[in-house]
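hey m, so remember when u said the tokens were messed up on ur end? i reran from scratch. heres the input so u can diff it against urs
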Amino acid sequence: MTRHQLEQERSGLIPENNPPEFVAKHLSAYHFARRFLAGKSVLEIGFGDGYGMNYLADAAAEVTGLDIAPQNIPLARAKYPNPKLRFVHFDGGRFPFPDGSFDAACTFQVIEHVPEAALPFWLSEIRRVLKEGGQFYVSTLNLATAMKPGAPYEKNADHEKEYTAPEFEALLRRPFPDVRVYGLYYTARHRLFRRLKKWGLHRLAPVRGHFEAVTVDDFRVLPGDAARSVDLLAVCRK
């Protein structure tokens, strides 16, 4: 298969092909986790483009990525030639690592794509490859805020299951008794610009300029009741 064909079949978020706000929202989970990963060996499940692994590598000692899409491996390896990174194909079964291989694991905006019947084994595999005391970072959309009052809601066709905060926490507590759920929120400044955009003022230079330069600084990860958050983020400890 040629590189062009691989590019056409690549799956996952590709930063340069998406608006800055969308990329920053996804990157915010990595930004939150990165502060806790200095000097650690990290596993990411479902790395896609590899941008998140490369971001984590600024702090981590090494980052290994698993992905079910084989075409992502050579593309990510070529795009991010960081010696700290290792890209591995995953066939959807048992993880190809011994017990206790990693200090931490993460999977961001992936769990909603996993078939419900496969989730218990998938989560048990994540727990298995973590060292004792290791942490697991996981994010997903918040169904409670994705569903707009008074409007019909249709689940993303690529999603197997979407979660409210209580459902998300209950799922994770089965393999991980120590779970803390956080919410991802817009900053007050970013909320203001989103409102101006909704009012049809997106062509104004300050509004347009803001959305051309959105970063992780326009988002906040906060503990407590996540019912109204944009996304859900959990930290689980083995």
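this time it looks ok to me. The beta strands are 41-45, 62-67, 85-89, 102-108, 130-141, 178-186, 219-223, 231-237. if urs says something different then somethings off w ur setup not the seq
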